[in-house]
Amino acid sequence: MSRFLSERRKDLVPYTPGEQPKDMKYVKLNTNESPFPPSSKALKETKKAVGKLNLYPDPECKALTQKIAEMCGVDTSEVLVTNGSDEILNFAFIAFCDDKTKAVFPDITYGFYPVFADINNVPYEEIPLKDDFTINIDDYCGINKNIFIANPNAPTGIQISLADIEKILKTNPENIVVIDEAYVDFGGESAIPLIKKYNNLLVTQTFSKSRSMAGARLGFGVACSELISDLNTVKYSTNPYNINSMTMSAGMGVLSDNKYTRNNCKKIIENREFTVRKLEVLGFSCTESFANFVFVKHKSISGKELYLRLKEKGVLVRHFDKERITDYNRITIGDRKQMEFLIAKIKEILEEK
């Protein structure tokens, strides 16, 4: 670091994205991307926007906001479109958390939450998951802090019910509850309908996973109009033109091709169940995933060793060094050919041991 870095930032530990190595061609199952290309309608709409790149994009994202509102069954004033769901999560830390109002989230969850808290000088608490990696709902009831929960959770894939989310909302009426639904389209149940009932709920989603647009960086949040107004204040104080024209157009195309998205999600769910069955036969234990990945461990090979051996054989999975989960690997669900290749390489590794 340079001598000019602020004292406030010197201890900041940044988020670590999944590796993107270029040394060889890999079967890439480490960053929860979709194995399927974007909708042809998304590509068509994107091409239309290229000729207008000399102009600023619509800062209000009116057409896309309307399309998302229709999909979610809410009013346009209850939607905010952002540069990936990471941006709206960061906005939530900025808008609603401070020295007087702490943030809380599980000790095993999306790794960006503590980074958002640290960079915004927000005090936070990590609440341990139970031994089976499920959330103890009672730990979040009546705690008078702003709550961030990924549902389904990452990297475990485990979800909590809408009844449990309601219990948290009811017992924390003076605090914000953020439900991060990046993986909800792979078998989860969205909390979006609850925004009509609870004015302290913010639900975030992304186009990166089920909608095959990780490279476009597009997400959104849904909440009561008052919360969205607060988040817009942060947006217009940082980057009013946060969605570029081509991404905005691609988003419109994706949402006009919902059948394509649903079919891709169905294939990923089928491939997830196929992969779990095959891995269990090989002696792996897997958490119950409702996401586009599985979280697995094997009794006779460490998570780190399996990750390294798979990398040698041309397969990338995600390994975490955190003590509680170091025996596990998170494996993104790809197409059937990719998953069959993964299983074959794991068999080789186990046989070699």
Show unreliable segments.
none
CATH first level of the largest domain = Alpha Beta
Question: Which architecture of the largest domain per CATH?
Answer: 3-Layer(aba) Sandwich
Q: Major sheet: order of its strands?
A: 2-8-7-6-5-3-4
Computed Rg: 20 Å
Proportion of residues in extended strands: 5-15%
Rounded to the nearest angstrom, the distance between the terminal CA atoms is: 42 Å
Fraction of residues in helix: 25-40%
Find the structural class using helix and strand composition.
Answer: alpha/beta
Gross geometry: globular
Number of helices: 10
The named CATH superfamily of the largest domain: Type I PLP-dependent aspartate aminotransferase-like (Major domain)
CATH topology of the largest domain: Aspartate Aminotransferase, domain 2
Order of helices and strands: EHHEHEHEEHEEEHHHEEHEEEH
β-strand number? 13
| Tally of distinct domains | 2
Give me the secondary-structure topology:
Blueprint: E1 27-28, H1 40-50, H2 62-72, E2 79-82, H3 84-96, E3 103-106, H4 112-119, E4 124-127, E5 146-150, H5 162-171, E6 177-180, E7 201-206, E8 219-223, H6 225-235, H7 245-255, H8 258-281, E9 284-286, E10 293-298, H9 303-312, E11 315-316, E12 318-319, E13 328-332, H10 336-352
Parallel strand pairs: 1-11, 3-4, 3-5, 5-6, 6-7
Antiparallel strand pairs: 2-8, 7-8, 9-10, 10-13, 12-13
Helix pairs in contact: 1-7, 2-7, 3-4, 3-6, 8-10
